[in-house]
Specification:
Leucine Aminopeptidase, subunit E, domain 1; seven-stranded mixed sheet; 5 helices; about 15% strand
Length: about 220
């Protein structure tokens, strides 16, 4: 199920244009780039809050209340209006179930939108965690397409405090993103990963599945 929630246009106006799909400012090592059909997958280590594309994905909690990790970093970078927008969504529709996504403006971020999704909490693999994680990525991609957000960036959903084992999460994420690019839901998807360990895990799996990277753009 795709949930749409966008504030009025006057609340998202900016006074200067943004570069679109820019990864360079976020990266700490050379990003890896792969062609998938007509689209592109980029795997990078860096700061997702600096991404200057159409949307970044926030690994949120069900109350959309901000928190630690990437969630807290995005809220700090976007400013207090992001929390106000999130509270309005929860008032309108209640807590966000795992695997679903909603969208808000990016406010003080370089990205135009933030797509919030709730990943699964790891409970040993017997509570459909893999299916919910796949749905979280696909919900974000479908919501991006519905809002003409052709270039978006993901963190490693559920791989922090929610405890999803990285070695199990990476192939699910890559498969979901490959499916989304194959369905033309986006033109460019970046995985912007904060820690070296997470970046290395995604880079190794991407190369094993997709071959040698073509370089970054």
């Amino acid at each position: 199920m795709i949930e749409l929630f966008i504030f009025k246009p006057e609340q998202t106006r900016r006074t200067c244009p943004r570069p679109r799909g820019t990864v360079e400012k976020t990266m700490t090592v050379q990003p890896l780039s792969y062609r998938l059909g007509a689209g592109r997958l980029i795997v990078a280590q860096g700061d997702i809050t600096a991404y200057a594309g159409d949307a970044i994905v926030n690994a949120a909690n069900s109350e959309l209340a901000g928190g630690g990790g990437v969630d807290g970093a995005i809220h700090r970078a976007a400013g207090p209006r992001l929390l106000d927008a999130c509270r309005e969504i929860v008032r309108e529709r209640g807590p966000l179930p795992p695997g679903q996504a909603v969208i808000t403006p990016g406010f003080d971020l370089a990205a135009q939108h933030v797509i919030h999704t709730v990943g699964p909490i790891w409970r040993g693999g017997k509570a459909n965690e893999a299916g919910v994680l796949r749905d979280a990525y696909l919900s974000c991609l479908r919501l991006a397409a519905a809002n003409q957000a052709a270039r978006l960036a993901f963190p490693a959903i559920s791989c922090g405090a929610y405890g999803f084992p990285l070695e199990l999460a990476v192939p699910i994420a890559l498969a979901a993103i490959a499916r989304g690019l194959g369905e033309n839901l986006a033109a460019q998807v970046s995985l912007i990963l904060y820690s070296a360990n997470t970046f290395q895990a995604f880079a190794a799996q991407a190369e094993a599945r997709l071959g040698e990277p073509a370089g970054a753009q």
